Amino acid sequence: MKSAFIFHRHKKIPFEIPSQWNLLTFAKLDEYPSQKDVRELTKNALKNPIHARALKDSLSPSDKVAIVVEDLTRASPKKLILETLLEELNAFNIPTESISVIIALGTHRGLTPEELESTFGRELIDRYEFINHDCHATDLMPVGRLKTGREVKINRKVHGATFRIGVGSIFPHPMNGFGGGGKILFPGVSDFDSIREHHLRYTFHEGTGLGKTKGNIFYEQVCAIARSAKLDYIINSILDQRDQVYDLVSGDPVQAHLAGIEKSRGIICQKFTKKSDLTIITSFPYAEGPQIVKPLAPAAMVTKEGGCIILAADCEGNLPDAFIESFERFHSMYGDNLLGGVLDHFENNRLIMEEGAIDFNMALAMTLAIQHRFKIILVSKDITREVGEKMGFIYAEDLQEAFDLSATICPPNPEVHIIPSGGVILPVT
Questions:
Q1: Across the beta sheet with 375-379, what order do the strands follow?
Q2: 74 pLDDT above the threshold of 80
Q3: Which among 29, 69, 162, 172 is least surrounded, fewest beta carbons within 10 Å?
Q4: Sign of the Cα pseudo-torsion (203, 241, 407, 429, in order)
């Protein structure tokens, strides 16, 4: 091959492959139709629930229904799915005032009124109750305990419902194995302290990792809390490598999720026969704040220890000064022992960014642990050189500069992987 491409804001950006590279893998997964009828997929999923009764057989007009929907860090077509689901509920004569939509923020920021309207439409916003979950609210209700003994509390509106439906999406996740399933409830609508303890205790636990569910206590605890909190039903999008909806599943929060995972594996798994000296990967489809470093996890899986990773990152904001300063401070404190510092913090239940949300701390921990093992070159038009270097990255303004820098790190004629869609790939080694 003489040329390849990466994805940048849903567009293919082509580039010439340097002649000295020995290309091992161009992880251009199979193309799937990008324009699927989401309403029809949703209706079909609702007609064919997995290990669950049909909604019409599970609901009555007297029910109070809580629909828990993922936030803007996920790319699913929430409005189309929600509209189709609400049409189904209306057909069962469930009163509008008995239905609430709760945004599953976990510890993420709340959606602004403008974001709610642009995401779900004024008609839905005016007709139904929409609530931003607050993980620090004083009226959260207990539903169970972690294995550590920590009590888990959830949103009062979700707790008070007689039927709970989670609307999420399935894609690789660096700790839970895959997104979707019970994650919509825990951590989606849970309290800060239990989310903190769960993430600090199990993020670096043996068995936790990208694409792993069997033997993964992080995932197992999510499922256990979802069961104890009585999450009744899920509707999950399965996202392809273009971050488009490939299919949907509905039904039991565990069994439907597992069935969706198997479908997901079928379209996003990529075989890598050996590890590379250099891996080029993008943040796509992630573009918000701490989410952009998640693709470092699959890159680390396929790169030789001590090798080089080029991360081409889109970033639409939400990199607060405290987050950047935490990187700078940690590098100053721990130098060449970044991984040791991260493990010390997590083993002693200490956040790296004490005033930060859990997602910022997980992004910090994962990035620092990978920076300990690899040389990482950040390419971004959205992040300045000063900020990138404060975060501990080698910085490049464009791909060509990154390629030139990699030549000073890698051996001559490096073996190379190119991964155009970093956030929606699951390496198989």
A1: 22-26, 415-419, 276-282, 303-312, 375-379, 394-396
A2: no
A3: 162
A4: positive
Cα gap 307→275, rounded to integer Å: 9
Name the packing angle between helices 321-334 and 358-373 (round to 10°): 40
CATH 3.40.50.11440 occupies which residues in the chain?
38-267
The pTM is what? 0.93
Least confident of 33-37, 106-110, 313-317, 328-332: 33-37
Encoding tokens for residue 193? 């302290």
Mean pLDDT of 49-69: 97
- The tokens describing 183, both together, are 């994650």
Decide if pLDDT at 34 tops 90. Answer: no
Question: Under CATH, domain 38-267 is a member of which superfamily?
Answer: LarA, N-terminal domain (3.40.50.11440)
Q: Is residue 285 reached through a cis peptide bond, with omega within 30 degrees of 0 on the bond before it?
A: yes
Burial class (CB within 10 angstroms; exposed 0-12, middle 13-18, buried 19+) of 291: buried
**DSSP, residue by residue, 332-394:** HHHTT-HHHHHHHHHHTT--SSTTS-HHHHHHHHHHHHHHHHSEEEEE-SSS-HHHHHHTT-E
Chain centroid to Cα 401, Å, comes to: 29
- The three-state secondary structure class of 172 is strand
- Unique residue bearing structure tokens 């403008």: 114
Q: Give the contacts of 418 (CB within 8 A, at least 6 positions apart).
A: 4, 6, 17, 23, 25, 26, 27, 279, 280
